From TrEMBL:
InterPro entries: WD40/YVTN_repeat-like_dom_sf (IPR015943), WD40_repeat_CS (IPR019775), WD40_repeat_dom_sf (IPR036322), WD40_rpt (IPR001680), WD_repeat_protein (IPR053053)
Entries under SMART domains matching the protein: WD40
Repeat found in the keyword field: yes
Keyword annotations of the record: Repeat, WD repeat
Species whose genome carries this gene: Cetraspora pellucida
Protein name in the entry: 250_t:CDS:1
UniProt WD repeat ranges: 93-127, 136-177
SUPFAM superfamilies linked to this entry: WD40 repeat-like
């Protein structure tokens, strides 16, 4: 499977979540860029050389992110309450002509941001330098979801044209394409072990969403369980907690349900995240990343707001009202910078939100 967060096949969360310091990650990133430069440098044409410089610049670390990496322990002194985004930092130029379905930061550093839209395009945003769209990838139909590859130079996109494309972000040219898909799958999430995958769909039978959330064994693609969620609502998104043995599902019942991350994947009937509205929209949710380690869950909202919940209490800790005109569809925490989140909505806009003290 093609996923920007490739996971090993060990069966324990402890082995998967081993900590790598920011300095070490910075060195790994530099090595990765050198590899890309070496591979692109095998040709001597002037055009290839210009392309090499272009992709190297795009994937290089902006000063704001490099500073955060070099100050390895800077986040220790940040007050916990200040890590909730409270104000708009950037409102990107409205280049999408229709609603935006999905957002994805590039790898574990978040140099650039990708957005997928109903206007049949994927756009790559240079967030911390030009603050503009720098690449456009086109589909024949609306684009529903996006994922980066492990080297961050290609992106996988899937759309309502029932096509999955792997595209070069430098040129926008399609490298591989598959039209073997059918039906409506709302979201896919890999298990941390790498052995299984979760899917959710719009499939609802009578008064229960039998086969709505399903677990599949990857090697054989056989269904292991289809009786996980028995409520009479379909689900629009799935997310594993980055540091705990749980996953959540965004339900059309206007709440986020919590499930155990190990078999039998039991629904937690005593705890849920509620307050936002879904109302049939493909609303998504996401956990905060390092250094918060999944302390907060953010969700879009049918009325255009962004809701922030605390994992331990499931209570609402902050609401940004009117973040978008129309539904706020997706919210995506920055993988490295504390208290930074991107959002998108039916108004076609992409925005960046941060703490009161954050500066670019």
């Amino acid at each position: 499977m093609y996923n920007n967060n490739q996971r090993p096949r060990e069966n324990t969360f402890k082995e998967i979540k081993g900590y790598v310091s920011k300095r070490a990650r910075l060195q790994l990133d530099n090595n990765n860029l050198e590899k890309i430069q070496t591979e692109n440098g095998n040709t001597t044409s002037e055009t290839s050389h210009e392309s090499q410089l272009s992709i190297t610049k795009l994937l290089s670390l902006p000063n704001r992110i490099r500073s955060a990496l070099e100050n390895d322990h800077a986040h220790i002194n940040v007050e916990r309450s200040s890590t909730i985004p409270r104000r708009k930092i950037i409102s990107f130029p409205k280049e999408h002509t229709k609603g935006v379905n999905s957002l994805s930061w590039c790898g574990s550093f978040g140099q650039v941001l990708a957005s997928a839209s109903m206007d049949c395009t994927v756009r790559i945003w240079d967030v911390f330098r030009t603050k503009k769209c720098v690449r456009i990838i086109k589909h024949d139909g609306a684009v529903k979801d996006i994922r980066w590859n492990i080297n961050f130079n290609n992106i996988l996109s899937g759309g309502y044209d029932k096509t999955a494309k792997i595209s070069d972000i430098e040129t926008g040219i399609t490298i591989q394409e598959s039209r073997k898909f059918f039906g409506s799958v709302n979201d896919i999430e890999f298990f941390p072990s790498g052995d299984n995958v979760l899917t959710c769909s719009d499939y609802v039978v009578r008064n229960a969403s039998d086969k709505n959330i399903m677990v599949w064994e990857i090697d054989s693609m056989t269904a292991i369980s289809n009786q996980i969620y028995q409520e009479a609502f379909s689900c629009t998104a799935l997310r594993f907690h980055p540091f705990r043995k749980h996953f959540v599902a965004q339900s059309n019942g206007n709440y986020v349900a919590i499930f155990g991350g190990e078999k039998p994947w039991k629904l937690d009937k005593r705890k849920r995240f509620e307050g936002h509205l879904v109302n049939g929209h493909p609303i998504r949710c996401n956990f905060s990343a390092e250094p918060e380690q999944g302390r907060f869950l953010a969700s879009g909202d049918a009325n255009g707001g962004i809701f922030f919940y605390e994992w331990s209490s499931s209570k609402v800790v902050k609401v940004i009202e009117g973040a978008h005109q129309g539904a706020c569809i997706d919210v995506c925490w920055h993988p490295l910078l504390n208290g930074i989140i991107a959002s998108c909505g039916w108004d076609g806009k992409v925005a960046l939100w941060g703490t009161n003290t954050f500066t670019l």
